[in-house]
Structures are given as C-alpha cells and as structure tokens.
Design goal:
Blueprint (H helix, E strand, L loop, with lengths): L4 E2 L5 E2 L9 H27 L3 H21 L2
Antiparallel strand pairs: 1-2
C-alpha cells in the first residue's frame, strides 16, 4: 500500500489511474486546445485590425494625468 499524499490544503491526493486516456478524451482535449488557440489568434487579429491610435493617445493622457495627480498628492 502506497503512503497517502496530501496537497497544500491538507486534502488527500488520490493516486492517478494507470489507464490510457480514451480516444474520446484525446479528441476532446485536442479540440479544446485548438479552440482556445483559435480564439487567441482571432482576438489578437481583431485587436490589430480595429486598433485606434487616437484611443491609445487618450488613455496615455489620462494615465499621465493620474501620474501628475499622484505626484501632487504625494502618493
């Protein structure tokens, strides 16, 4: 009998099964990973396509304002 192992919260860790994952589990895993990375690529491409430099300048000016305010307040 193997010794019982515990996680950092004191819960016992169940031993991993030695079974090979099924074909359905492998397909689900690969589909999920593929969907995740497809969404990452789509989001990055959309952000690059619809990037508005004027908005970036506005955010920078607001950040600069907060920096000056922090200096004046002494924070």
């Amino acid at each position: 009998m193997s010794p019982v192992q515990f996680d950092s919260f004191g819960e016992p860790i169940l031993p991993a099964s030695d079974k090979e994952p099924t074909a359905a589990a492998r397909v689900a895993l690969h589909s999920g990973v593929g969907l995740f990375w497809a969404m990452v690529v789509a989001i990055v491409a959309a952000r690059a396509a619809y990037f508005d430099p004027a908005l970036n300048e506005k955010v920078a000016s607001v950040a600069s304002l907060f920096g000056h305010l922090r200096t004046v307040v002494g924070g």
